[in-house]
Each structure stands twice: as C-alpha cells, then as structure tokens.
Amino acid sequence: MAYWLVKSEPSVWSWDQQVAKGAKGEAWTGVRNFTARQNLVNMKKGDKAFFYHSNEGKEIVGIAEIIKEAYPDPTDKTGKFVCVDIKADKPLKTPVTMAAVKAEKKLADMALVKYSRLSVQPVTADEWKLVCKMGGV
C-alpha cells in the first residue's frame, strides 16, 4: 500500500462532503498539473490518502481510501488528465495543521512542506505514521 495526500479547498469540496458520499465515494477530478496527474496514475486501489483542506484551514482533516484507479477525467476536454475515485475512511481526531507539520523536524522533507502548491502528493510510510500519531489515529 502506498500513501498520498490530496488537497481541496473546503468551499469547493470539503471533508464533510466527502464523508456524505459514503462507500460509493466520489471522483477526484479537476487536477490540471502533470506531476499531480502522474501521482494519480500511480495510485492503486486500497491506497490511503490524507485529505487536506488547503487555503481555508490549511490542515489534514481525514483519511481517504482510493477505491478506483486512474481513468480519464470527464471534466477535462483535452483528454490529457485523469481522476481516481476516493471514499472517506476516517477523520483525524485532531486536525493536523500546516503549522504543526512545519514545526515537526521529522516532517521537514514532506512534500506538503516542500511543494506546497502540488495538489496530489506522495507521503512516505514514516511521514504517514507520524501524521497519524499527531492526529490521534
């Protein structure tokens, strides 16, 4: 299993909206960056992803699961981009803020810190364990 982080502005798509979709999940569409696209392509069914509220809140709020691997993004008229389907797995007991991530020396190399504008990012197993601990799960 691999680990990821996906970002969404809560005013566009929030954790609560993701949770409301239940077991059928929702397509993670609208990614228009080629590095993020490649990360979507690399996701496998059963992988886990942190759900990060960007811009508004700037915090990891939950864990999602990849339930369908990459397929053509229906919102992309160029045919160059893909999406995956994700479902909410569980919320973090305590959201992990960007400030808390930056304050943790062991997370200094985390993609969330180094590539803050990248909307779909890999997360190492060690980073995953530490953030889960910080979030109380």
Automatic annotation (TrEMBL):
SUPFAM superfamilies the UniProt entry points to: PUA domain-like
Signal peptide limits: none
Domain EVE: 2-134
Source superkingdom: Bacteria
InterPro entries in the record: 5hmC_binding, EVE_domain, PUA-like_sf, THYN1-like_EVE
Name under which the protein is recorded: Ubiquinol-cytochrome C reductase
Organism: Bradyrhizobium centrolobii
Species lineage: Bacteria, Pseudomonadati, Pseudomonadota, Alphaproteobacteria, Hyphomicrobiales
